[in-house]
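Email to the structure team, subject: DUF378 domain-containing protein model.

Hi all, the expression group asked for a predicted structure before they design truncation constructs. Nothing fancy, just the tokens so they can compare against earlier work. One-line instruction: predict DUF378 domain-containing protein, return tokens.
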Amino acid sequence: MDKFVLTLVIIGAVNWGCIGLFGLDIVGALFGGQGAMISRIIYAVIGLAGLWALTFYSKLHSGSSDES
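Reply from the structure team: attached below.
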């Protein structure tokens, strides 16, 4: 599940990068615009993946005690 969530977070980051750099919303362009229902579902799923990814911080700290 964590790999899937990380993949979605990366897709979201790349999409935001393209919006910021080029004014191009890849998800919107592929799925019928920002207002299309499928686009909104994809945005919501990516947003939920971002929230899930917050749990990765606790996994980082519990995994090792060799912090720099």
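The chain has four helices and no strands. The chain has one domain: 2-60. Ping us if the truncation boundaries need rechecking.
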